[in-house]
Amino acid sequence: MSRSVAAIAGLCALFLLPGSVLAVRPDADCPSTASGYVVVDQQTWWDRTVAGFVAEGIDVYVGGDPNADFTAEFDAFSEAVGFGDGQGLYDFVWITQWANIDKNDDLLVCMKDRPVTPGNPAFFFNGVDNTAH
After folding, report:
1. Looking at the domain assignment, is residue 77 inside a domain?
2. Mean confidence (pLDDT) of the chain
């Protein structure tokens, strides 16, 4: 019986040790502040993407209203880059791209602006999962 008590006490102590393999995973966070990454949710990722399109002169929503339809201009751009239409590009950013970055499925990622150049339009960003530090 005393071996059982000792074993249970040992297991309890293992859970209390700092740095234990069984310890709770640390809070998810972005790389250091100096890296330029900030934590964003899925809606913010999309909103910043839309702002990037607008900065490049591509209006996304009719009248700028996110409750309105996609503009013909956004549909044409989306078709030209292989997404069929604006909904196809939206689905890619909102679903496919997001899932490829949010590895831990906590609906948060780290986003970083890239320099805007002819090869890097304002709607391109760097993204890593918020556990990548």
Report:
1. yes
2. 83
